[in-house]
Structure formats: structure tokens, C-alpha cells
């Protein structure tokens, strides 16, 4: 089918990436529709330039202005109810247990690439493909007869860590026009084409502020204990800490100390020296595979893995058993954090990933 006969819904956010995504597709000959998803419906105020909060007037105005400039429709799709049910409730419950979930890993497969386009269709919009300004690539491999999710050429901006749960059915209908671009080229393109958001700051955070403001956790005092057993201080809630944290512990000791783990039964934060933050083995659950067929998985996969979005890929061996995996790294990794995602790669191809359950 020719591009002029294909309609693409572009998820616009009021930022430069989604703006360039929409314009690139329009210039390529697609029929383009712009839509912005609303994910919050409450009373909390937060600083602009974050995903979660009520003060989105500037983002909405910018997104609409960009769509007007490009000459495409703009729609605002309310996904707040579904976001609360599928993402935010999970985020809150995990955080209260001392785990560190990544809301973007949950939001992308459940809301942005699922609920959002579905509700857009339910509102009466008709389109063939869905596109976003993510820095990632999708290629179809004829020999393998499958779509490959690949890292963006700009590895510093690569966002595949957040996309590993996209299935083959999803990938075949998604476009990532920025996958081959550098960030500087994106901004220059926006400026050359008169887009007002060409120098707008990137949105970096889910929420601007302390997460305790939004997770509705009650204060629960407990001990901060050295790994040797000595009590060094107290805390007002495990949810205030993350694995590998050094600052803000408010305890005195002859050496710098870091959060090593949590003892949920005793409501204790366990701290220790820097070397104790390193581990070579993790266990992951809730696996999702972009490259492999779930019913035909190898028992062992030698690959690379990322344990955080801004981290580097590290060589590992992955041992599969049912819907769980044991991941053994060749080199120790710092601050492996339960609740975060571990994402597997073969070169620049995303294999899949899962949720870090525990660390050995």
C-alpha cells in the first residue's frame, strides 16, 4: 500500500521528538494525525517537563501548536483511568515494598502502545500505523520472518530498555522515524522547519518531586542496620530508600555506607561498604520475549543485559526455567535493584527482558 493511502497516528507530547516524528512522516507522504494522551486526573501539582501531574497546559498548547504548524489534526485522549489501574497502582504497591519499579517500562506496553491507540480508535479516529518519537528501530527480517526491535543509532538516547515488552503483533504496526537520527539532528531539523519546540528541554522524569508525595505510604519506623548486625540509626519508611543509595542515610560511620538490601520482615534497611553493592547474579520473573517464541526458548542464552535504562550492556549467560530466568554476569554489576527491568540484547537487537526479583 502506498504511503499516501496509509494513515499514521502519532503520539505527540509537546516535545521536540514527537514533533519531528510527526513532521518526518508527513513529509514522507503519510496521512498523519496527532494525538496526546492524558494520564493524570487528580489534585497533585507537579513541575512541568515531567510525565505525571496536572499542570499540562503548556505541553498541550505546544503539541497543538506543532500540529497546527505541520497541518495535521490534534486530539487529546483521556487515558487517566487506565493509567491509574494498570500502571500507577502497581507502581505504588511495589514502591511501598522497598522495590524500585520503573513506571515507563509499565506504561509503554500497557498504555502508550495499547490503551492509548485503542481509545483513539474508540473515539472515532481511523489509522493504519502508530508512531512515536522513541529512539529505537524496527526492521523486518525476511529469513527469520519476524520484526526486530533494535537500538537507535544514537546509543546515548536509545530507549529500547522501555520497549522490550512490545510483541510481534505490536511491532508490525509501529513506526519509529527517529531511530536513525542523532538528537542534535532532530533539534536542527525542528529549527529549520520552524517548530517552536526545537530547543525545548527534554522530559526526563516520571514525577518532579519526592515519590512519597504520591505513593500514599504511611510512616513506618525501623532500624538502619549494618550488614554486620550493628544498629546505626533509624528510618521512617523503607520506601524512602533505594538499593545503592549513599546520600541521605543520616548515620555516622568510619566509612561511606550504601543501602545493600531490605529486611521486610523486620522493617530494616541494611547498609554496608561499597564493595557489597556489587553482584554477579540476579533472578528475573515475568519474562517477555520480543525475539524468541515463548514456546521455543533456548534453555541457555549468551547475550548482553542492561539493569537500568542509562546503564551499559554487560555480557551474561541467561538460564531459562518456565517464566523465570537466572542471569549470571561475567563481571560484577553495581546496585542491581529488585523491581527494575533487566533487558537482554544480542548486538543491537532486543531479545526480551523481565523484572528483577532478587539478587544473589
What does this structure look like?
- The protein is of the alpha/beta class and 360 residues long.
- Helices cover 21% and strands 31% of the residues.
- The chain is built from six helices and 17 strands.
- It has helices spanning 16-27, 57-70, 80-96, 103-122, 168-171, 183-192, and strands spanning 7-11, 31-38, 73-78, 129-131, 136-141, 146-151, 174-175, 222-226, 231-235, 258-263, 268-272, 278-289, 300-306, 314-321, 324-334, 341-346, 349-359.
- The strands form four sheets. Strands 12-15-14-13-16-17 form a six-stranded antiparallel β-barrel. A five-stranded parallel β-sheet has the order 3-2-1-4-7, sandwiched between helices.
- The radius of gyration is 22 Å and the shape is globular.
- The model has no long low-confidence stretch (mean pLDDT 90).
Amino acid at each position: 500500500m502506498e504511503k499516501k493511502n496509509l494513515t499514521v497516528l502519532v503520539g505527540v507530547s509537546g516535545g521536540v521528538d514527537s514533533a519531528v516524528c510527526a513532521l518526518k512522516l508527513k513529509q514522507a507522504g503519510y496521512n498523519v494525525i496527532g494525538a496526546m494522551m492524558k494520564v493524570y486526573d487528580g489534585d497533585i501539582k507537579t513541575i512541568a517537563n515531567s510525565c505525571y501531574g496536572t499542570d499540562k497546559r503548556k505541553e498541550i498548547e505546544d503539541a497543538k501548536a506543532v500540529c497546527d504548524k505541520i497541518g495535521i489534526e490534534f486530539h487529546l485522549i483521556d487515558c487517566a483511568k487506565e493509567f491509574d489501574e494498570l500502571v500507577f497502582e502497581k507502581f505504588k504497591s511495589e514502591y511501598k515494598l522497598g522495590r524500585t519499579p520503573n513506571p515507563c517500562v509499565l506504561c509503554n506496553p500497557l498504555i502508550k502502545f495499547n490503551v492509548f491507540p485503542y481509545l483513539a480508535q474508540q473515539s472515532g479516529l481511523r489509522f493504519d500505523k502508530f508512531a512515536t518519537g522513541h529512539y529505537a528501530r524496527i526492521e523486518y527480517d525476511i529469513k527469520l520472518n519476524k520484526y526486530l526491535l533494535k537500538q537507535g543509532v544514537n546509543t546515548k538516547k536509545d530507549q529500547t530498555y522501555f520497549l522490550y515488552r512490545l510483541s510481534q503483533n505490536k511491532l508490525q504496526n509501529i513506526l519509529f522515524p527517529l531511530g536513525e537520527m542523532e538528537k542534535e539532528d532532530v533539534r536542527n531539523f525542528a529549527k529549520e522547519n520552524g517548530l517552536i519546540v526545537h530547543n525545548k528541554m527534554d522530559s526526563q522524569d516520571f514525577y518532579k518531586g519526592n515519590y512519597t508525595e504520591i505513593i500514599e505510604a504511611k510512616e513506618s519506623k525501623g532500624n538502619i542496620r549494618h550488614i554486620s548486625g550493628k544498629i546505626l540509626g533509624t528510618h521512617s519508611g523503607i520506601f524512602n530508600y533505594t538499593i545503592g543509595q549513599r546520600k541521605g542515610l543520616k548515620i555516622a560511620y568510619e566509612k561511606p555506607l550504601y543501602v545493600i538490601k531490605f529486611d521486610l520482615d523486620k522493617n530494616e534497611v541494611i547498609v554496608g561498604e561499597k564493595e557489597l553493592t556489587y553482584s554477579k547474579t540476579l533472578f528475573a520473573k515475568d519474562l517477555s520475549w520480543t525475539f524468541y517464541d515463548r514456546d521455543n526458548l533456548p534453555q541457555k542464552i549468551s547475550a548482553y543485559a542492561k539493569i537500568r535504562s542509562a546503564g551499559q550492556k554487560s555480557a551474561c549467560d541467561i538460564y531459562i526455567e518456565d517464566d523465570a530466568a537466572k542471569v549470571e554476569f561475567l563481571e560484577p554489576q553495581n546496585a542491581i535493584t529488585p523491581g527494575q527491568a533487566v533487558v537482554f540484547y544480542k548486538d543491537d537487537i532486543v531479545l526480551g527482558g523481565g523484572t528483577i526479583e532478587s539478587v544473589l
